[in-house]
Structure formats: C-alpha cells, structure tokens
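User: Write out your own:

AI:
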Amino acid sequence: MSKLTKNQKIAYAKVEAGKAYKLSEAAALLKDVTFTKFDASVDIDVHLGVDPRKANQMVRGVVTLPHGTGKTVRVLVLCTPDKEEEVKAAGADYVGLDEYVEKIKSGWTDVDVIICSPNVMGKVGALGRILGPRGLMPNPKTGTVTMELAKAVKEVKAGKIDFKVDKFGIVHTSVGKISFSPEQIVENAQEFLNMIYKLKPAAAKGSYVKSIYLSTTMSPGLQIDPKSVETK
C-alpha cells in the first residue's frame, strides 16, 4: 500500500478498529473521514451468505432511492419513431434505433442505462456481446425492457438502480454522494438494505447478511452492525 497522506492518517485515526457502527453513526462519520476535493460517491458493500453460482441463490433486484443517487444518469432509449417525442419529453438523453444500434456495434457505449420496448429486442439482442459485459443490456427483470418507456426513463432519472450479487457473494452499489446529509445517506442505504432482505433466497442457508461496509471513493470502509439495519 502506498504511504498515507496526512489527511488519510487523520481519517484512519478517527475510525475505531474492529467496531461495527450503527448506520446513522457511520453516515455521520463518513463525512468526517472523507477528504476529497470532488463530490465522492457513497458506496455500500453487502457480503451475503449465498452461492451465486446456483440459480436459486441469485440475488438481483431494483430499488428507487428516496433521494436519488446524486449522479447524472445518461439514458439511451431504443424505440420506434412513434415513441420518440414521448421519451424525449420524459428526459431521455439519446433516442433512436438503427443509428444507435450501428453506433454501439462500432463500440459506442457512452451511456449509463439503456431502455427499449419489447418490439425492438430483435435488433437489441444482437448487441449482447458488447452491452452484456458492461451491464448495459436491457432486461425485463430490471424494467429496462418495457412498453412504458416514458415512465421507465423518469424512474431511472429519479434514482432507480438495479443491482446483483457478484461471483464472490457481494452486492456493491452507490447510495448517494458525500454532499448528501447523513439522514439522506441513511434513508437511501436503508431502502437498499430493505430490498436486499426482501430478496433473501429460500435456498440460502445460515447467516444471510455477513457484513455491510459503507465507504467513499477515498475513505476507510466503515463496518455497519447488521442488527442496526435489519428491517421489515
């Protein structure tokens, strides 16, 4: 590990080794131990007691964060011309079909979310090799293949995120920015964790939530006591 800067040393000194914090304590402390010049993302990592290689233990879902993510989400909608005006009015950044299919085939993926209607999936399906590895492939399970395109655009712009457990059993997502108030960070994290608990697979054995960590791009990770967030 590279040498710690003076600010990092101050930050690490404020974190009690081995302590599991309440979610509200951690959200407040995070502001104290983040010394970035930019508005860092607040990230949450949840280690689950599941085997993601087994289909019946896959944890994947969508959740709308009450305070949004703090990020500007660039949305591409692939649809037929009759829908274009409606989705532009809903806030889509890019709208079209064939021209964007060709752009993506040429390697363009400069967006955060792609939404499409079921009737264009034939054309979109051919992009799976490019979009799949980047997590951009539209999927009915996450609401990004839908007849209600304008509604889907508004939800994504308002803070709807989708997440899934990785091969190590960890779900990682952002729940805001360090400029958010501690209360906003807590409420966003709580909403996300509620969904994680709701999605517990029946086949998962033993302890479901093994650990929770809250951090920013440039801060130490703060361990959260799962008992302080076990919810409905």
